[in-house]
Predict the structure.
Amino acid sequence: MSYKINPLRYLTKIPKIWIFLLLVQIAIPVAINNPYYIKIFVMFYIYIIFAMSWDLLGGYLGIVSFGHALFFGVAAYTTALLNVRLNWPPIINFPLSILCALVMSLIVAKPSIRLKGHYLTLVTLAFPIIVTNVFFAFPGFFGADLGIPGISRLSYSRVVDFYIAFIATWVIYFILKRIISSDIGLILRAIQSNEVAPVSCGIDIAKVKLQMFLVSGMFAGVAGFLYAHVIKIVGPESLGMGLSVEAVVICVIGGIGTLSGAVFGAVVVTFINEFLRIIEEYRFLIYYLLILLIVLFFPKGLKFYIDKLLSFTGKRLRGKGFGL
Amino acid sequence: MDMILKLLIYTLITGTVYCIIALGFSLVFGVAEILNLTHGLYYVLAGYLVYTFFVLVNNLYIAIVLAIVGTTVFGALTYLIIYRVMDSGFKVLLATFAICGAVSEILFMTYGVSPIGLPNIIDGRITIFGVPVIKQAVLAAVVSLFVLSVFIYLLNKTDIGRAMKAVSQNTEIAKLSGININRIKGMTVIIAALLASIAGVFYLPLQSMRPELWMKITVLSFVIVVLGGMGTVKGVLASYIIAFTEYATTLAFAEGSYVKEGIYLLIMIVILMFRPQGLFGKSLGPLEVQI
């Protein structure tokens, strides 16, 4: 089921263009000495982590979750509560918030792994609403509508925040890449296309699904943890359907079932979220109309078109290790 | 005793209204096999159209008729979009979500964020078995019951109704029998919009009308349909269970009105774990248990 990998050998196989792009990103906070723009980049990484964790379930396993923000929000609330109510520093909160996200994904996975299609959508949609209602039932502790303000910063400077988010994103990317290109990735695709076939090969698909739920929930929790300490306020919208749909939209824009598609999608969504603030009242309208246009006319996602472009223009470059 | 009577009467009234909301959703689900998230939007849009036309023509009855017609036309327009993405359920979900988001944004921009109160058709209260009930609620329940019985009669007696049943039972055979599948699916979405808008026009004066209400209504009808069993008309009876849960939690806790949605969703998840086909749905074969 799993084979040993030599990490050093794997590192040498990274395409050169990736290394180039990573270097460019490392240079960003040095080049842009503006805390506002650096914060936008941190949000961009958070979106990437969150969307990639959705893609593992939605794109590879076919579990189309419309409540993925639950894990994100639970981790964010955990660290916010510990930080504001008990004054615990982020470094101690991190394992605890991940633990909460894992427990939550275990709870959601239990009924979800037996269901498919519309039932699954409803169950994933239901859990965030239930948790939000619990939050509203105890307004003194969870802050109800206003959320929990006054969370401390991740680190002492924005630039360090940036590098933490940067490292987290690419570490998670390579972990997920390993998972989906290993034998387990093959099983995931098999489950997505036909559940009977892997079952008849003696694979415990319930176990695989549970494992993937935990992995996905954990990484969404990492995104939520970072979010709480970057935005410094956590409200009920951090586990609402809007954010869940945002993860789906990022993956759809980039291309579902292509891990790196999340990066392209996150570029577009971050652009809409941050740079269209000038026309604040039309921002959401533009966002929803864009979703509609993409679903109607470009359902394959940006990754598909970029790959096509690259295979058209850069066959020789790709041969030298310059493919995406 | 007084409490129980109150609970029962409120449950009966609200449950009947929920019946016609969920009926359209169930129908779209059974016939077109899609999850139409815009269903809640039809309900809310009908209310806003009543408000708009009431301001324009200053006659509530004309406004109501125009609103129902307008929402039905809107339903037909949404089908034009759904039709293009019907090959995948996931795309339908995203597209309908985007429609809802865009339209509710437009409603926000036009009418502001504060909730709007719709005028009642009849004012005042009556007393049923010692329980005071708003007359508008009774009217909504009576109209819903009437629409429901007319609809079930038409479903069994007219060609379109029988064609709908045929498509929901077996699409391939229905196609072979010369039924225009896409036309029937379109008709179903339009009828769903009609039913939801009737419910909205009569029941929204009792609620505070906000654009984001669409999500609650969609989730509500979704839960009713799943609880009752997909594609069964009988399944909409589960709406009484939901209405009962809502009122019971509201009466039981001080914060009940915040958590009622969570409680019926929890009940639904528990029931789904033991009866994945819903309460009234037919038991599925051993291979199909994983729906």
User: Anything to note?
Assistant: Chain A has one domain: 7-238. The CA atoms of residues 98 and 222 of chain A lie 7 Å apart. Strands of chain A lie at 148-149, 233-234. The mean pLDDT of chain A is 84.
